């Protein structure tokens, strides 16, 4: 689960992470009120969407104008920026061409930036530990830095038994070129970030940029936090921060049925049980010359109702021109999948080619249910056969 910058900063403030003062605003008047309370000569107006690259982004109705993060030198200018940002679609490299509608702003006091650094904490699954990633190249995409200047990235894995240690923080501080009182401040901040990461069950905390001010202070100028969805049951306060407007409606609907769904840009809808098999299915669709329209894992214990819901979600995508169902019945029973496929096809009045490949428990019964349904469903013997049949059917129908 992702949250907005202003929400992340409110959480991090509880862990003594140094931040600037600011407030959220949903209207032009609220933005101006926050600016008045801050009372500084410089105020920053930040669009709040779940996407990076806001500062370099452009609004769809003003492609040559300013981005989603703007500096204002008066309360009136804050109002002008707010009026031109709220309710408008901001396009960044992470939103895609459709962009995202800005519905709230974070109004923050200005900062005398001397240096910009990068800092993050994440779960390094290759070693099974929380890892700190830092770089002197703040304000840039860490992927770009890793590609162009890998020598400028420093990493530090944290022993889960010992937790974050001060010497680890000092090591990173020195690598970032910090000195004097900055080192102590940085180590203290790192301790707070690690505490937040572990206590809130985060999957990512990213500070980009972490800045050194003209006065020598170290401040988190931005904040991004992601949380482990599997842990939200014990963090109802965090779950309440979810902004469903920032999520794909189909993905939100899928979550209600415990379906793992991610929308893609292709034309062949996929319904598979198991993440690995789903990835292989998408790969073989590409191998046969088409593109998958989604990743959809119905899980190992899907019911007839869940399969029907999965079908409806797939068909809500107007780009879908065909559907490939690929099920290996280990825990899952093929007859249950077949019943769900037949029920869904009848309920949604299926109008695109459908190829089904079943294998495993009760496979013969499942194939019999499909055959006797009277519906136009094509059976496949194996994965390659299924991919070839659905790609050919879609091309013939277009």
From TrEMBL:
It catalyses: (S)-malate + ATP + CoA = (S)-malyl-CoA + ADP + phosphate; succinate + ATP + CoA = succinyl-CoA + ADP + phosphate; GTP + succinate + CoA = succinyl-CoA + GDP + phosphate. Mg(2+) binds at residues 208, 222. Its cofactor is Mg(2+). The keyword Nucleotide-binding applies. It comes from the Bacteria. One of its GO terms (cellular component) is succinate-CoA ligase complex. InterPro entries: ATP-grasp, ATP-grasp_succ-CoA_synth-type, ATP_grasp_subdomain_1, Succ-CoA_synthase_bsu_CS, SUCC_ACL_C, Succ_CoA_ligase-like_bsu, Succinyl-CoA_synth-like. The keyword Metal-binding applies. Residues 9-236 form the ATP-grasp domain. Substrate binds at residues 273, 330-332. Succinyl-CoA synthetase functions in the citric acid cycle (TCA), coupling the hydrolysis of succinyl-CoA to the synthesis of either ATP or GTP and thus represents the only step of substrate-level phosphorylation in the TCA. The beta subunit provides nucleotide specificity of the enzyme and binds the substrate succinate, while the binding sites for coenzyme A and phosphate are found in the alpha subunit. Belongs to the succinate/malate CoA ligase beta subunit family. This is Succinate--CoA ligase [ADP-forming] subunit beta. It comes from Reyranella soli. The lineage of its organism: Bacteria, Pseudomonadati, Pseudomonadota, Alphaproteobacteria, Hyphomicrobiales.
């Amino acid at each position: 689960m992702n949250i907005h910058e202003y929400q992340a900063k409110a959480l991090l403030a509880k862990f003594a992470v140094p931040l600037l003062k600011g407030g959220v605003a949903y209207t032009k008047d609220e933005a101006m009120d926050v600016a008045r309370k801050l009372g500084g000569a410089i105020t920053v107006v930040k669009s709040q969407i779940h996407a990076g690259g806001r500062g370099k982004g452009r609004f769809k109705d003003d492609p040559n104008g300013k981005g989603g993060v703007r500096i204002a030198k008066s309360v009136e200018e804050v109002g002008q920026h707010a009026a031109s940002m709220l309710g408008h679609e901001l396009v960044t490299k992470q939103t895609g061409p459709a962009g995202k509608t800005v519905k709230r702003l974070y109004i923050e006091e200005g900062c005398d930036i001397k240096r910009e650094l990068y800092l993050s904490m994440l779960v390094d699954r290759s070693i099974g530990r929380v890892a700190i990633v830092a770089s002197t190249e703040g304000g840039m995409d860490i992927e770009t830095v890793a590609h162009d200047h890998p020598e400028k990235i420093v990493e530090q894995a944290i022993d889960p038994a010992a937790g974050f240690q001060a010497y680890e923080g000092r090591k990173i501080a020195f690598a970032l070129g910090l000195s004097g009182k900055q080192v102590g401040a940085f180590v203290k901040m790192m301790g707070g970030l690690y505490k937040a990461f572990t206590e809130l069950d985060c999957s990512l905390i990213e500070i980009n940029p972490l800045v050194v001010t003209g006065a020598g202070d170290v401040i988190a100028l931005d904040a991004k936090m992601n949380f482990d969805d599997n842990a939200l049951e014990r963090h109802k306060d965090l779950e309440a921060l979810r902004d469903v407007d920032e999520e794909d409606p189909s993905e939100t609907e899928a979550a209600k049925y415990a379906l793992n769904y991610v929308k893609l840009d292709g034309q062949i809808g996929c319904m598979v049980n198991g993440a690995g098999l789903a990835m292989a299915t998408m790969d073989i669709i590409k191998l046969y010359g088409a593109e998958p329209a989604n990743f959809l894992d119905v899980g190992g214990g899907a019911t007839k109702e869940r399969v029907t819901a999965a079908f409806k979600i797939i068909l809500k995508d107007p780009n879908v021109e065909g559907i490939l169902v690929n099920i290996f019945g280990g825990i899952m029973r093929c007859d249950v999948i077949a019943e769900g496929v037949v029920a869904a096809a009848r309920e949604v009045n299926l109008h695109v080619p459908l190829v089904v490949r079943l294998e495993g428990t009760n496979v013969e019964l499942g194939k019999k249910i499909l055959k006797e349904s009277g519906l136009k469903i094509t059976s496949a013997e194996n994965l390659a056969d299924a991919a070839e049949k659905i790609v050919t059917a879609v091309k013939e129908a277009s």
